[in-house]
Amino acid sequence: MQEQPSSPARAVGVGPWDINLAGIGIALPDKRLHNNDLTAWMDTSDEWIFERTGIRERRLGGTTSGLSIEAARAALADAQVDASTIDQVILATTSPDYMLPGTAPAVAHELGLTCGAFDLQAACSGWVYGLVVANGLIQQGMNRILVIGAETLERMTDYHDRGTGILFGNGAGAAIVDRDTTGAGRLLSWDLGSNGKHIHILYSEHGGKMKMDGREVFRQAVTVMQESATASLERAGLTVDDIDLVIPHQANVRIVEAAWKRIGFSMEKTAMVLEHTGNTSAASIPLALHDALANDRIAKGDKVLFLGFGAGMTWASAIVEWNGTSG
Ligand code: UT7
Fold first, then answer.
1. Is 217 in the pocket of ligand 1 (CB under 6 A)?
2. In contact, 244 and 303? CB cutoff 8 Å
3. What's the CATH fold of domain 9-16+184-321?
4. Does the Cβ of 215 fall within 6 Å of ligand 1?
5. Which of 74, 193, 201, 248, CA to CA, is 20 to 30 A from 314?
């Protein structure tokens, strides 16, 4: 029998691919729930919550589709492109408007679109998963993809529970991800992963509220952030010092600090917004990206590392060479 040739080594997650984040937009509902408000019905304090999490307030109100549409319109305006040029809508969310159907078709409809539209459920890693999927679709011929992360976690949060009630809020962030024809904007590498062994450290039953083993989530988060960041750095052939800005999932500033101690990143090169948003799951990374751009923290040619982790557990990281919007 003829010997089969061994299959070629798969270079999974190793780029570069020519894409560009051409526009970023966000939406935050007006209603604020400050730590001091929580003390009216919970045995806690602003000092305790801020010291343990870095959070002072979170936003409540809105719907996942409504926040998505607002963020998407802002991203389209930022990129200066018309909605009709979008080839695909990807909506990363853990808190869709309905169990059925997904929320993405309603968002597409409001934007005047009949292109493909689907929800992506990878918890807090969802927006980075969406970015990687968008890149795959662009490599298959699409030109422009709307990648949204949007949540109304308020509906799944028990604000009387001291573990979860202090953390979560609503919000949305959207990116226009384009095929880059200039050669300047590139996705250099990515890493996606999951470990379903940990389902029950953070979960919610149908129609129920979130239940969490906070200490275990903390522990696992630090480990997977280190592993995923290292994987993306190695695949891009980069070191920690090559990264100009890290945009981590905004869950808890202490998780980020603990992970950075292991990896070697500095807080100076880190985008954080959770003080004023709380944990907004799939929305948190695009919210922090928008803030970094608004504060001129990203320049053309910069290497930006997105690093997410969340329930599942899932994790995701991606390194982008920046050629996009200036915010
Ligand atoms: O996207 C991922 C989302 N999940 C996360 O990011 C969760 C990660 N984990 C965490 O952020 C932390 O585990 C929490 C902030 C949720 C809790 O902090 P902790 O340091 O793990 O607190 P703990 O549950 O171990 O409790 C320590 C102490 C206890 O008091 P004693 O027994 O030491 O006297 C608790 O009763 O803190 C007390 N405590 C609180 N005190 C004031 C627990 N929750 C609160 C609270 N306010 N909200």
1. yes
2. yes
3. Peroxisomal Thiolase; Chain A, domain 1 (3.40.47)
4. yes
5. 74
Per-residue pLDDT band at 327 (split at 50, 70, 90): very low
Q: pTM of the entire structure? A: 0.96
Ligand 1 contacts CB of residue 193 (under 6 A): no
Closest atom of ligand 1 to 124 CA is: 1
Q: Which residues are catalytic?
A: 124, 249, 279
Q: Which atom of ligand 1 is nearest to the CA of 164?
A: 16
CA torsion, points 50, 170, 219, 273, in degrees to nearest 10?
-50
**Rg for the chain (alpha carbons), in Å?**
19
- What stretch(es) of the chain map to CATH 3.40.47.10? 9-16+184-321, 18-179
Two structure tokens written together for 195: 């470990």
What number does the ligand 1 atom closest to the CA of 217 have? 8
pLDDT tens digits, residue range 41-78? 999 999 999 999 999 999 999 999 999 999 999 999 99
**181-192: per-residue pLDDT in tens?**
998 999 999 999
DSSP three-state, residue 8:
coil
Mean pLDDT (the chain, rounded) = 96
Nearest CA to ligand 1 atom 18: 52
The answer to whether domain 18-179 has CATH 3.30.420.40 is no
Q: What is the Cα–Cα distance from 260 to 35, expressed in whole angstroms?
A: 26
